[in-house]
Specification:
Length: 418
């Protein structure tokens, strides 16, 4: 059954239900009035007053509204049809209790208020119970069964509107929290992160100064070589150790700085304030070189991980130099994450194959090319591919490879194949 047929069927069922209910004109007006006023007011406290006010005006009934705290499951008084939001009682009466069905007690008719079962509701109502409140009608023992039945249906409408109002208010609170959190991250994470640039420049300056000292020391060694050979030998040994240490520091500083640039780019991309203002991913497009500004830094960042897995990438760096001139206008952070994901998968999924010499090797290859008029006349595109060695994926598997939870049929239960 398609969606339209299912809806039409439900409409027909509701039509038949209302024919069975046989509500009179006043009762139908009660439901319409409640729906109109429930939508008219924004504050949830006003909805409480509408809930208890409608039965008072139309039927002269006094009523109380109780709510169930979603965190503690405690019953709390919310509103009275005579006193409004001001409680006349310090405690909730003992006969008010959480039940699934209506009941009559102490001359009062008590009806549980059911919410809706939705995924969003699990965030607001943390307990599995779907009862969100209780509606009490005072001096109800004289009411006939048809009117009690109508009150049940009225309370059903209360549950629907209360639930939606709670969700709306909670959503607003969540949005405020997220916006405050983003502002805090921008102030306490992203902005201070910029200061690292200054420290990296200072470290690089110190390292370059150390290199200059090496040169000066080298000149002094030439003078000592013949005059004081023993001193020369000792200082030459120290000088060599100094060179090795400085080169290692240069290498590590380069890696740290690359990691900083990578992390900063991702931080800026992920926590861009506009994402949270508009509630969707907002692209920040800039002109850049696809190879030099996006792919190459990611390849260099993964160099050590490739080497640990026995995968050489020097040939990739050389082969793709010809693609240096491909310029694109993209969200650099987003595209860098795509390239990062490709290379991360390449590290995990590359499998050994036998080369021409009979040796087992793992291989990764990258290709990049310009596609003229690919997106229409005058609109070129750039294509970037990452290939890994291993057993080819079957056509049936390839059609489903991006489905959530899918695992390759040929993989049994190997790690990384899901």
């Amino acid at each position: 059954m398609d969606a339209l047929s299912a809806i039409i069927k439900r409409v027909q069922q509701k039509k038949e239900d209302y024919a069975t209910y046989a509500f009179d004109n006043v009762q139908m007006t009660v439901l319409n009035t409640f729906f109109d006023l429930a939508q008219e007011y924004d504050r949830v406290e006003n909805l409480y007053l509408v809930i208890v006010g409608v039965p008072r005006v139309f039927f002269g009934l006094e009523s109380n509204l109780f709510l169930i705290d979603p965190k503690t499951d405690m019953i709390k008084w919310a509103a009275n049809s005579n006193t409004g939001l001001k409680s006349r009682e310090d405690k909730v009466p003992r006969y008010i209790r959480i039940t699934r069905a209506p009941y009559m007690e102490a001359d009062a008719y008590i009806v549980p208020i059911h919410g809706r079962k939705t995924h969003a509701g699990s965030i607001v109502f943390q307990k599995p119970r779907d009862i969100i409140g209780i509606f009490e009608v005072k001096q109800a023992s004289h009411l006939p069964q048809p009117k009690l039945f109508f009150l049940q249906k009225y309370v059903n409408r209360i549950g629907y509107n209360l639930y939606n109002k709670f969700l709306a208010e909670q959503s607003i609170q969540h949005l405020k929290f997220i916006n405050n959190l983003v502002a805090d991250m921008e102030h306490n994470v992203i902005a201070p992160n910029i200061y690292y640039k200054y420290y990296f420049r200072k470290i690089r300056k110190y390292l370059n100064t150390g290199k200059e000292i090496e040169s000066e020391l080298d000149k002094l060694l030439d003078e000592l070589k013949y005059k004081h050979p023993e001193v020369y030998a000792r200082i030459a040994e120290i000088h060599e150790r100094m060179i090795v240490t400085n080169r290692a520091m240069f290498s590590d500083q380069e890696k740290i700085e690359q990691h900083y640039k990578h992390t900063s780019l991702f931080l800026e991309t992920l926590f861009r304030p506009d994402h949270f203002v508009y509630g969707e991913y907002i692209l920040k497009k800039t002109s850049c070189y696809l190879w030099r500004d996006i792919v190459k830094p990611q390849l260099q960042r993964y160099r050590d991980r490739f080497l640990k897995q026995g995968i050489a990438i020097n040939h990739i760096l050389e082969d793709l130099e010809e693609a240096e001139d491909i310029q694109v206008r993209v969200d650099k952070g987003l595209l860098a994450q795509v390239a990062d994901n490709f290379l991360s998968n390449a590290v995990k999924y590359a499998e050994p194959i036998t080369d021409a010499s009979g040796k087992a090797v793992k291989k990764v290859d990258c290709k990049m090319k310009l596609l003229k008029n690919f997106l229409g006349k005058g609109h070129d595109a750039a294509r970037f591919d990452v290939f890994t060695s291993g057993q080819p994926i079957g056509e049936d598997d390839a059609a489903n490879i991006f489905e959530e939870g899918f695992r390759l049929g040929q993989s049994e239960a190997g790690q990384g194949t899901g």
